[in-house]
Amino acid sequence: MATKSFSPNEVQRIIHTLHRPAVFLNMTDDWPGRDWTLEHLAICLGEKSVYFRIGKRDEGHGPLFETQCSYVEATLAEFLCWTKGKSDSSVGPFSSYPLSEYWAYADYKYIVLLFQEKATMFKDVVWSDFGYSGRDGRESTLWIGTNGANTPCHLDTYGYNLVFQIQGRKRWHLFPPDDADCLYPTRIPYEESSVFSRVSIIKPDLCQFPAFRRARAHVATLQPGQVLFVPRHWWHYVESVDPVTVSVNSWMDMEIDDEARVGEALTKIVVSALKTTASLDNKDNWLNPTEEGISSHDENIKCLNLAVKALMDKRSTQAEDSSEFAGRSGSAALKRDAAGRLKTKATDPFPPFPLPFGPHLIPVTCDGDCCQKQTASSLKETLLSKDNAHFSPPNRTEPQPTDTHQQGEAASISEELKENDRRNGEKYGSISTNDVLDCLLHPDVISLVTQLMIDRQRELDPK
């Protein structure tokens, strides 16, 4: 058996102490899942087809959401032929999409459904080595893509992520939860477990999204055999950088706290109410393909009531525990774990310890220089783009041009922007349903409404 960098208990201590992304090395060398190359999987699945998401390689300045993609159903054998540059009948439905112009992604494929006739393959992914006893590939998803395949920048509303890279490399752009305002969150397209960013991370439009310049990108290129830890509520944009990539994702600790559950229920009510109302600007495909369908208003209200009741019950229990503890301990400070339970040093299963960063655990650091170069380049490109000239540049102080040519060029750009602003000024006053939703569903607004709702319930039932 291969020697592991860390024992399962050590990995658990590391994960419960980490507050930023990190990469584990030398933990999967003996996993049978290391053999899950595209060629191997094509043989295993045979004639079984899967859905692929198709996107244009030149996607402009906006993120390409799942609702805007094309989809084809094909076998992995056909996909394999397509990745090798073939264009005959062996590529099946991919014949309509030249490899030089399009990328393809089989994403979110639940392994328990994909290999239900080959259940022995579940054990090829050994999450028990990371301290999750009895957990294997059954609770994971498979991701297979070409160069350029990507997942729009988003955060998962609950759980944290472990990513096992098998074939090819993927580049991860990760942003801390505090950077939410820099990433312009949106709930359209709607997915219950995700909040998307309106910014294209690779080609950001800095005139439309100026705060993105302050976003702190943590960049890591995941190599085969490595495992990435993505902490709870970290934003991430993922892109494949090799001709073929294969990886396995598993969401851990999926429990969502009661206050967040109330927020999710509120969000679902607001989105469903506004987006199912017939109007001229409600023609967009707003429901993410990962969602099964639209719940009725009565169903959504029922979920909200259950979430509010659970939250109030928990707060009532916590208040009783605090009162009892204070009676026994005087003015002693109360400490609680992430679930709100009282804890002491004796009951804390993972006390703090120095993180063993080194050759086997690599922290994903903030790539400040890369971010500055990227945003500077994107700003110049945006300012010179006629397609985006109707956006006003943000107020900023910049060095003055030092020669006549630069002064003339700057003046020309400025005049062009002003003229386009004048011609397109009416666009600033055009507020859409999606604009209203972005404001109503801002995390701060949802948090405030949640508290107001709890206060109202407490007044109605003060016991």
Automatic annotation (TrEMBL):
<dbReference type="GO" id="GO:0005737">
    <property type="term" value="C:cytoplasm"/>
</dbReference>
<dbReference type="Pfam" id="PF13621">
    <property type="entry name" value="Cupin_8"/>
</dbReference>
<feature type="domain" description="JmjC">
    <location>
        <begin position="104"/>
        <end position="267"/>
    </location>
</feature>
<dbReference type="InterPro" id="IPR041667">
    <property type="entry name" value="Cupin_8"/>
</dbReference>
<keyword id="KW-0963">Cytoplasm</keyword>
<protein>
    <submittedName>
        <fullName>Hspb associated protein 1</fullName>
    </submittedName>
</protein>
<feature type="region of interest" description="Disordered">
    <location>
        <begin position="387"/>
        <end position="429"/>
    </location>
</feature>
<dbReference type="InterPro" id="IPR003347">
    <property type="entry name" value="JmjC_dom"/>
</dbReference>
<feature type="compositionally biased region" description="Basic and acidic residues">
    <location>
        <begin position="415"/>
        <end position="426"/>
    </location>
</feature>
<comment type="function">
    <text>May play a role in cellular stress response.</text>
</comment>
<feature type="compositionally biased region" description="Polar residues">
    <location>
        <begin position="394"/>
        <end position="409"/>
    </location>
</feature>
